[in-house]
Amino acid sequence: MLTALNVAQVILYVALLALAGQGVLYVLAGPKREQNLFYTLLRVISKPFTVPMRKVTPRQVADRHVPVVTFFLLLILYAIVTFERADLCITSQMVGQPGCR
Fold first, then answer.
1. DSSP 8-state code for residue 57
2. Tens digits of residue pLDDT in 29-69
3. Per-residue model confidence (pLDDT) at position 43
4. Residue 59: what are its φ and ψ, rounded to 5°?
5. What contacts 67, CB < 8 A, 6 or more positions away?
6. 95 falls in which pLDDT band (50, 70, 90)?
7. Every domain of the chain and the residues it spans
8. Cβ atoms within 10 Å of 70's Cβ, excluding its own
9. Would you say 39 and 25 are in contact if contact means Cβ atoms under 8 Å apart?
10. What is the C-alpha to C-alpha distance for residues 5 and 11, in angstroms, rounded to an integer?
């Protein structure tokens, strides 16, 4: 169970960093961000999370807001996974184990 929580935490962490980087480049690169290689790479990394979110959100939500909604949902999920991982480590007396550090 601890391994599954660690893997989920890493996946969410990478997706959050990709979305945060995409947001920073959105501001810094301006209208030419679509030609930016790093912006495109970050979009590819975050696409497995933003495409399902686009299908779940109502049509009134603009396409440019979907990454923001995805970021905050993933942030909530990351917090839940982190607290569950900490709870598992504390309650099962595995504080010194490598996965609990």
1. S
2. 888 888 889 999 999 999 999 999 999 999 898 888 999 99
3. 92
4. -65, -20
5. 19, 22, 23, 46, 50
6. low
7. 2-100
8. 22
9. yes
10. 10
Q: What is the pTM of this model?
A: 0.86
Strand, helix or coil for residue 94 = coil
Write the CB contacts of 29 (distance below 8 Å, at least 6 apart in sequence): 36, 39
Q: Which amino acid appears at position 28 of this protein?
A: L
Query: For residues 46 and 31, what is the distance between their CA atoms, to the nearest angstrom?
Result: 20
Neighbours of 65 (CB within 10 A): 11
Sign for the CA dihedral angle at 48, 49, 53, 54 comes to: negative
Cβ atoms of 7 and 1 within 8 Å: the answer is no
User: Phi and psi of 10, rounded to 5°?
Assistant: -65, -45
Give the Cα separation of 5 and 71 in Å (integer).
19
